[in-house]
Amino acid sequence: xxxxxxxRGLVVGIANDxxxxxxxxxxxxxxxxxxxxxxxxxxxxxxxxAKAIGQLSVDDPxxxxxxxxxxxxxxxxxxxxxxxxxxxxxLVHSIAFADREWxxxxxxxxxxxxxxxxxxxxxxxxxxxxxxxxxxxxPDGGAMVxxxxxxxxxxxxxxxxxxxxxxxxxxxxxxxxxxxxPKNIRVNTISGGPLRTMxxxxxxxxxxxxxxxxxxxxxxxxxTGKDVGETAVYLLSDLASGVTGQNIYVDCGYSTxxx
Length: 259
Ligand SMILES: NC(=O)c1ccc[n+]([C@@H]2O[C@H](COP(=O)([O-])OP(=O)(O)OC[C@H]3O[C@@H](n4cnc5c(N)ncnc54)[C@H](O)[C@@H]3O)[C@@H](O)[C@H]2O)c1
Hints:
The protein is an alpha/beta fold. It has a single domain (about 10-255), classed as Rossmann fold (3-Layer(aba) Sandwich). It contains seven helices and seven strands, in the order βαβαβαβαβαβααβ. A seven-stranded parallel beta sheet has the order 3-2-1-4-5-6-7, with helices on both faces. The chain starts with 7 loop residues before the first strand and ends in a 9-residue tail after the last strand. It binds nicotinamide-adenine-dinucleotide.
């Protein structure tokens, strides 16, 4: 019997088979969940996302376009899930965006206002926007998880405005947990270690971060997508029935080191 048998939910953030969302979906499916998906609008995005989902062996996937920066897109997707399935049990938010021009060491202080606003909107506000809509189709309670990073709590050169956005995401998680807890909906984040994905490559000096973590982390390696996928299953399953408002580090222990 799977930990996620008879649970259905939405996974947002598969760009390709390197995405954290891809590995989270892989784990969820392996543990028996039914996953619904969205892709960033556009032919190329659809093709890449559908190809990755094909590799997960999902027959006839439920896959809809959604730009999380658009309230109309968010409404359309969650309304359609309500019409097609009635309810869901979980939500995975695995998206972020910041203009890569400003993700370079030494450029943080000069971040333009509109770059700040967009990074905070897409990377943090959208968790609230999705949580609000998802909660309406979770009549029996549910669970949500979003992806954060250590740059939320420490200055990681080059991570810049994304660090500020992740701090907002982690804080929003605690407020969402307080708001939605009375409806038996749990809200958490995973702070994942560096993983070579399309978004990660936009961060200046990313390869050095990988090398550094491998040398310094207690487990002497970088995380795998599966490390994070399995923790997402834990948080979204009944195993974590008393866990909400938390940020769980899946980083081979890197964040626990002082030096
Ligand atoms: N890769 C890492 O090192 C790392 C570490 C910790 C946390 N994270 C976080 O993991 C999450 C997933 O990123 P990833 O590393 O898998 O990269 P990725 O590029 O594979 O995924 C990012 C996703 O965000 C989506 N996205 C961007 N703007 C969007 C919008 N307006 N509407 C809808 N979707 C949008 C993209 O389509 C893509 O699917 C992000 O929150 C990222 O910050 C990544």
